[in-house]
Design goal:
The protein is 35% helix and 15% strand. It is globular. The N terminus and C terminus are likely disordered.
């Protein structure tokens, strides 16, 4: 080989020296700064170089870019140990997912709020008098009585009666009217008698809640009288039928010689509160909180205007006739059955306050001697506490023994012509409560005791009354 060729193929020491020469002072300074910034002897370039593919002879390629480059934020991380945290990508992905979920929920909440905005004057059209009163309750004018007189017709024309009892009705935002708007056929009022103010019966759950304005007359009796007067106001087409009475003779179910055996049931031709079902009566349950000996006589006197207008259900012991009216008054609480219901004051000439009989005493499973005295001549409701008489559902289901007892009690009340009613039914979970409602309705309960009127109305209208609890629903 010629010297010239050797000179071409093998560079001289002087030519190789620049490539193998040590870094300059500036580069040494930069390298030192890099090592100090990472807090380790390993530089970022060394870390990235570790991911370079190796040459066949073991060397590292200097021309190809690494297939992995650290993110910029990592390249500036103070500690090089963070570069080897294999959980960091997973944490970043978790944060991204949570952020997506939160933003989605916020977006859904915003959409729901926009869809739920009520447009004044267009959200709901008032179509009946009872809705008008509920919507304007609390406004300074006009007065409730004036609103009632402005609705002589169609007071409840869009309301479907539901066999539900408004428990502690006086606690509602609009007592009486909320229940009527929901279609409830029963309302409840607790009354107190104060000897220093004998002309009034006060409404409240306890003494601390009593006020001079909350009286039985103001909250229930006067509004009911006005409603029924408007419902039965004479017109060009109905004047000849006003206060007319049609009677039909039937045999009332009675197991006592004290009550009617072949009583005549007279049905008033007077219209009731519900336009869609004028013959459906409203039950006014009055819970006496003060002793019956002092409270019952004032109650009889307070009901005289409704009695004089023939709006009350009455029983005449002389003719053995039960006359159904638009309103049936039932007394419970401290009411004494013998001294109050059967007293001459309540039967002369007619009885117009009926008793709330104890439902467990009517059960055909374990009858008692007292169950024979309750019948349609002196009682209307037959009630008990569901939690006490039946018990709580076990794990959301009723035992076969509980189902049997419910049916026996309901059948016992039906056999006497009484309306069975339970209070203190399970209120949570909602599925259990609605399951109990379905079971009771399916077994023929007379009326449902409820607290949430809106929910029971929706449940009834959507066919919930056909859905009972699975709990061994087979007949026994």
């Amino acid at each position: 080989m010629s010297p010239s060729m050797c000179n071409r193929s093998a560079p001289s020491v002087e030519q190789q020296a620049p490539q193998q020469s040590t870094p300059s002072a500036g580069s040494n300074k930069h390298s030192n700064n890099t090592r100090q910034s990472t807090g380790s002897d390993t530089s970022i370039q060394d870390i990235e170089a570790a991911f370079l593919p190796e040459e066949p002879h073991g060397g590292k390629s200097a021309q190809k870019a690494p297939f992995f480059r650290l993110p910029l934020v990592w390249r500036k991380t103070p500690s090089s140990d963070d570069f080897f945290d294999d959980k960091a990508p997973a944490r970043a992905l978790t944060r991204f997912r949570w952020a997506t979920i939160v933003l989605s929920l916020l977006l859904l909440a915003l959409i729901g709020a926009l869809l739920g905005l009520e447009i004044p004057h267009h959200a709901h059209k008032i179509t009946s008098g009872v809705e008008l009163i509920v919507s304007r309750w609390g406004l300074p004018s006009p007065s409730t009585q004036k609103e009632l007189t402005n609705w002589p017709n169609q007071f409840t024309h869009d309301v479907t009666p539901i066999p539900c009892h408004s428990h502690n009705d006086y606690w509602r935002r609009v007592p009486l009217y909320d229940a009527l708007a929901a279609g409830c056929t029963g309302v409840e009022a607790d009354i107190w008698f104060d000897a220093t103010k004998p002309d009034d019966l006060f409404i409240g759950h306890n003494k601390k809640s009593l006020t001079p304005a909350r009286t039985l007359k103001a909250m229930y009796l006067d509004p009911l009288l006005t409603i029924l007067n408007n419902q039965n106001s004479p017109s060009n087409f109905s004047s000849s039928f006003a206060n007319d009475t049609t009677t039909t003779t039937t045999t009332t179910p009675s197991l006592s010689s004290e009550g009617p055996t072949n009583a005549t049931i007279a049905n008033n031709n007077l219209l009731g509160i519900f336009d869609t079902s004028p013959t459906t009566p409203l039950t006014l349950l009055i819970d006496l909180k003060t002793p019956s000996s002092t409270t019952f006589a004032p109650l009889l006197a307070a009901l005289q205007p409704l009695l004089a207008a023939n709006y009350l259900t009455t029983y005449n012991p002389t003719t053995d006739t039960l006359t159904r009216g638009p309103i049936t008054v039932v007394a419970t609480g401290s009411t004494n059955f013998t001294q109050a219901i059967l007293s001459p004051a309540n039967t002369s000439p007619v009885r117009y306050i009926f008793f709330d009989a104890p439902l467990p005493a009517l059960s055909t499973l374990h009858p008692t001697p007292l169950d024979l005295q309750y019948n349609t001549s002196n009682s209307y409701y037959a009630s008990t506490s569901y939690a006490t008489a039946i018990g709580k559902p076990w794990l959301g289901r009723m035992t076969q023994g509980q189902v049997v007892e419910v049916r026996r009690q309901i059948e016992g009340a039906q056999g006497r012509g009484l309306v069975s009613r339970y209070w203190d039914t399970p209120s949570w979970p909602r599925g259990v409560e609605e399951g109990v409602w379905g079971m009771l309705v399916g077994d023929g309960v007379g009326i449902l005791g409820v607290d949430d009127l809106v929910r029971v109305k929706g449940w009834w209208e959507w066919g919930g009354r056909g859905l009972g609890m699975g709990l061994g629903r087979g007949r026994v």
